[in-house]
């Protein structure tokens, strides 16, 4: 083990007990993650069930106080958490990456603590009234992804705790150490058993989805896995929040000032090196500004520093794992074979490391190409030309997925008119993928269901109760 930190030492086990976790950029082993069993899962579920009533009994005010203390603890350990995240996930420390993600963990924890959720007076007539209350569900199972492992875990954990639930969290097998470190920081302020982590293979995740002791399952990941969770959870009727894959479209209208929005466009596509569910995945551009958009994206892509995340000044990193690297490479090669124009990138950056792929802009490509129709989840953006807005909207909506979408224009009224016709849980104007802890977020169609963040997010991890007098 090299370049260890106190938190890393705390969450790792010995080499003969655990599974090696590589540095995403160099593939050197940075630590060994515990390999938990189904018996370990049962132990954590039992502990969470036993701890939950007392945690619920503390009340909103005390739980909120504890969550704010946890946010302080995250900030106090932010640099250590960011370095571990950067090495394990691959995202650079700088830019909208590792330090940004750890900071977001503190922000979202505070938001869960401070968001007001009052009982709602639903009906009143004379002496009769009905009031809607929200109470704890019980035990929440949280299954997280590898792309934003800490931040998305907080999206699941913090509101669940705020509402009086206990939580068992399972991180991705690709990024367990950073989530284990985050759970350790949380548990410095929580009663025993209220929050527990379990690591392991898909057997653990499948068992969680089917386990009768979970009152709620929260999952962020692929649509295919989400469908399996729905099937597994059906017999015990666990509530579900599913944030699944996205093949987000963006539409650039002809009146758009490209020079003023080009960098927003770039980061909409390439944040976290494209490994973001709600990143811009396919860009439809009007013929009148098509060449300007393509050239601007390529110019910015070529100027962005890419390298090992712990090196100063980097803003783009590697693909996190070999499987995702292979997906990106396959989709770009398919586009090339179809005659699409690789404006920049289109190849592995082998001089930087085994899983680096240069930021890629692909022009003169159409719907039907795999790079357009499939979610690439990496640093490659197809730019598709259109002439009629009705055609662009139809193509944008043709995907089975509907997580996010965006419209780009200097005329807000025109942009709003297009946004209202797009089938997505969130539609941004002149930005893409920006999230606010107070604003609900969730998908439509095969991108899942249920909402997170703000008041709606708190309601999603609670059970409604109507009291009629």
If you had to describe this structure to a student in words, what would you say it looks like?
The chain has 469 residues and is an alpha/beta fold. The chain has two domains: 6-244 and 447-468, Aldehyde Dehydrogenase, Chain A, domain 1 (3-Layer(aba) Sandwich); 248-429, Aldehyde Dehydrogenase, Chain A, domain 2. Helices cover 41% and strands 21% of the residues. It has 16 helices and 20 strands. The chain has a seven-stranded mixed β-sheet, sandwiched between helices. A six-stranded mixed β-sheet has the order 7-6-5-8-9-19, with helices on both faces. A three-stranded antiparallel β-sheet has the order 3-4-20. Helix 4 (78-89) packs antiparallel against helix 7, helix 5 (98-114) packs parallel to helix 6 (149-162) and helix 8 (202-210) packs across helix 9. The longest helix is centred in the first third of the chain and has 20 residues, at 38-57. The mean pLDDT is 96.
